[in-house]
């Protein structure tokens, strides 16, 4: 009988996993559990990068990846599974190649689509453990609810600027994400990493914690983060812990659940005000360029932060950060035509709504923000 037929591993694999095999909590039996396990990683970005790499290195037999984005230069500061040569490639293809380079013995399943209420149960149902590496609330609530309905553990992670969170939501043993956050925050209250920034190593810390929790679940070893929320502050270099309790009135995992099937999570979380703007409230970069060339001089209102202004800004623009706008609205004249812009159009869309509610009517939002201007008008301007 060959070595592979006796224990499921060849000599190269035994050498590859030797440091695991030396751990009494893992050993050959535990390594076999890892090889037989399947983990779904939702998102091949900042959190998904270290998660997927460490799961592959550990020998998890089947790794599923969900993503539909392409690699951009702005990803490379934190999404370490991708390289400079991958810019422009689908993230799933880049991630698959890197995973198989780390460990060709694992099977990588690609789900190149947005996970939604129509496909989530079918996708998640094929895996033992789900790891949430998402960066938006609709997908986060969708992932939670699908995992509760299917009885799957959901390894949660979240990052923003210099802070991160991690937990394991398993409704069969403890609380779910909705027990902690019954309702999503109002749209626009919590900026995305694209708008607020993130320390590049932060997803490495939180993603490594998520990978650790997934391995512990598979091995059935140690004390998991079920019922605990781990809080990390990179600037202070501190870890804090909050104990979580299952909410008996939770709409999805409570004693009398009202959410028994997946819902419309975009509607549940509310649309981004920038996305709700009608075309009449928007102006393209080309249209703004023509307006300026024809001698029109609208007030160009930059609602970004001063450090973003230093990277790039439109000539003759005025800087009033979005957070300061309510207190400085009196500096603007409602009779003027005002074109608002930010990095991508999201914050300026919210600022436009604020001004509109205050009685300003001659308003336009620069669609795509200053990055759109840099892409189509001023090619020498920095994008970020």
Task: Give keywords.
five-stranded parallel β-sheet, 384 residues, 36% helix, Oxidized Rhodanese, domain 1, 2 domains, Rossmann fold, globular, 18 helices, eight-stranded mixed β-sheet, alpha/beta
Which helices and strands appear, and what pairs or packs with what?
Elements: H1 3-7, H2 11-16, H3 18-21, H4 27-36, E1 38-42, H5 48-58, E2 62-66, H6 91-102, E3 107-111, H7 120-124, E4 129-132, H8 137-150, E5 154-160, E6 163-169, H9 177-180, H10 193-196, H11 202-219, E7 228-233, E8 238-243, H12 265-269, H13 273-276, E9 282-283, H14 285-293, E10 299-302, H15 306-309, E11 318-319, H16 325-328, E12 338-341, H17 346-357, E13 363-366, H18 369-376
Parallel strand pairs: 1-2, 1-4, 2-3, 4-5, 9-13, 10-11, 10-12, 12-13
Antiparallel strand pairs: 5-6, 6-7, 7-8
Structure notes:
The protein has 384 residues and is α/β, with parallel strands linked by helices. It folds into two domains: 37-271, NAD(P)-binding Rossmann-like Domain (Rossmann fold, 3-Layer(aba) Sandwich), CATH 3.40.50; 274-376, 3-Layer(aba) Sandwich (Oxidized Rhodanese, domain 1), CATH 3.40.250. The protein has helices at 3-7, 11-16, 18-21, 27-36, 48-58, 91-102, 120-124, 137-150, 177-180, 193-196, 202-219, 265-269, 273-276, 285-293, 306-309, 325-328, 346-357, 369-376, and strands at residues 38-42, 62-66, 107-111, 129-132, 154-160, 163-169, 228-233, 238-243, 282-283, 299-302, 318-319, 338-341, 363-366. The longest helix has 18 residues, at 202-219.
CATH-wise, what's the superfamily of the largest domain? NAD(P)-binding Rossmann-like Domain
Beta fraction? 15-25%
Are there runs of 5+ residues with pLDDT below 50, and where? none
Q: Give the distance, in angstroms, between the N- and C-terminal Cα atoms.
A: 59 Å
Q: What summary fits the major beta sheet? A: 8 strands, mixed
Mean pLDDT: 94
User: How many domains, in number, for the residues?
Assistant: 2
CATH architecture of the largest domain: 3-Layer(aba) Sandwich
Helix count equals 18
Radius of gyration: 24 Å
Helix content: 25-40%
- What is the C-level CATH assignment of the largest domain? Alpha Beta
């Amino acid at each position: 009988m060959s070595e592979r037929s006796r224990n499921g591993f060849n000599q190269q694999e035994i050498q590859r996993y030797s440091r695991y095999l030396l751990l009494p909590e893992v050993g050959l039996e535990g390594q076999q559990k890892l090889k037989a396990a399947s983990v779904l990683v939702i998102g091949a970005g900042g959190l998904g990068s270290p998660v997927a790499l460490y799961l592959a290195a550990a020998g998890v037999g089947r790794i599923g990846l969900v993503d539909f984005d392409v690699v951009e230069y702005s990803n490379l500061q934190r999404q370490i599974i991708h390289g400079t040569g991958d810019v422009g490639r689908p993230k799933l293809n880049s991630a698959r190649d890197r995973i198989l380079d780390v460990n060709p013995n694992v099977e990588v399943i690609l789900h190149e689509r947005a996970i939604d209420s129509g496909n989530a149960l079918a996708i998640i149902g094929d895996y033992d453990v789900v790891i949430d590496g998402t960066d938006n609330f609709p997908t986060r609530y969708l992932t939670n609810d699908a995992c509760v309905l299917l009885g799957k553990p959901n390894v949660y992670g979240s990052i923003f600027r210099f802070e991160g969170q991690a937990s394991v939501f398993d409704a069969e043993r403890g609380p779910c994400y909705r027990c902690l956050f019954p309702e999503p925050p109002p749209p626009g209250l919590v900026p995305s990493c694209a708008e607020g920034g993130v320390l590049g190593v932060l997803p490495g810390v939180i993603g490594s914690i998520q990978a650790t929790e997934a391995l512990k679940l598979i091995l059935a070893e140690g004390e998991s983060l079920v019922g605990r929320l781990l809080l990390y502050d990179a600037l202070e270099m501190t870890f804090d812990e909050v104990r979580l309790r299952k909410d008996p009135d939770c709409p999805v995992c409570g004693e009398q659940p009202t959410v028994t099937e997946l819902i419309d999570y975009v509607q549940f979380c509310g649309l981004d005000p920038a996305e709700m703007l009608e075309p009449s409230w928007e102006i393209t970069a080309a249209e703004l360029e023509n307006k300026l060339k024809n001698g029109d001089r609208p007030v160009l209102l930059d609602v970004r932060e001063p450090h973003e202004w230093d990277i790039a800004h439109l000539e003759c623009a005025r800087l009033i950060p979005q957070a300061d706008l309510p207190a400085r609205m009196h500096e603007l004249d409602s009779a003027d035509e005002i074109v608002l812009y930010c990095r991508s159009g999201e914050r300026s869309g919210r600022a436009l709504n604020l001004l509109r509610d205050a009685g300003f009517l001659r308003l336009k939002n620069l669609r795509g923000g200053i990055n759109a201007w840099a892409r189509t008008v001023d090619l020498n301007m920095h994008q970020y």
